[in-house]
């Protein structure tokens, strides 16, 4: 049998992926081929009639099989896009989600001047996408990313270096805001952002195979209610924030009201607003330390 062309190999893979229930099979097949050949979409289309060697066929088949086993596409290609930037990702940290970009939008809304010498903390930095993007958006700011997972901090360090923000960013190992309190003390941080674990243990079984099998559970699952991390993080934020400082926390569907109550239970904090994502889910809780 003649060697398939690039286009034929992509088409065959796309059909196979879709037949096995993999969402967006064609896009996955295209991205896997682009990854294999180290080319962009335009070149993939222009080179579609070129033949694939047996060696490349075998490598492509291996990549497709990994996707068929529900390994996230981003882990296979080691690439994920966030805020129109390309980040390195691997199984040591969560795959960045589009809804987390709402945090960046809300920070920019409240702090439109990009020249401020802000002190910003990203709690549970993971792959470092929020840390890096906020450093790029606020080039005079000091950004601290914290994480309890050493592996996640290693991934974040790769992205900090790749996107050239090492001079602004410090990555600290530790639980939530504890390392920031230890290093800087209370009442000094202008902005806290976080996409913490917020999935309850009962919800774990309903997660997509790509998520529950491949991504780090410690970054996903919070505990029996899903609110456990917020119950610890919010009182810490009340201590760390400077007067007038704000926080931006991502949460799960149906959690915003409970989080607002936790916020308002802190004498020094007040809830400002809750922001919905593109699916209409209350996704970002914004609050402030009273002046």
Largest sheet: 7 strands, mixed
- Spatial strand sequence of the major β-sheet: 5-4-3-6-9-11-10
Detail the poorly predicted runs: none
How many domains would you count in the coordinates? 2
Average the pLDDT over all residues and give the rounded result: 95
Q: Please tell me what the overall shape is.
A: elongated
For this entry, give a set of tags.
Rossmann fold, two-stranded antiparallel sheet, 2 domains, alpha/beta, single chain, seven-stranded mixed beta sheet, 291 residues, 11 strands
Structural description of this entry:
The protein has 291 residues and is of the alpha/beta class. The chain folds into 2 domains: 6-69; 80-289, Vaccinia Virus protein VP39 (Rossmann fold). It has 12 helices and 11 strands. It has a 7-stranded mixed beta sheet, sandwiched between helices. It has a two-stranded antiparallel ribbon with strand order 1-2. A two-stranded parallel ribbon has the order 7-8. β10 (269-276) and β11 form a beta hairpin. The protein is elongated.
Summary?
The protein has 291 residues and is α/β, with parallel strands linked by helices.
Reconstruct the topology from this structure.
Elements (H helix, E strand, L loop, with lengths): L5 H14 L5 H13 L3 H6 L7 H15 L4 H5 L2 E3 L2 E3 L13 H10 L8 E5 L5 H9 L4 E6 L2 H13 L6 E5 L4 H7 L4 E6 L4 E2 L8 H6 L6 E3 L4 H13 E10 L5 H9 L4 E8 L5 E8 L2
Parallel strand pairs: 3-4, 3-6, 4-5, 6-9, 7-8
Antiparallel strand pairs: 1-2, 9-11, 10-11
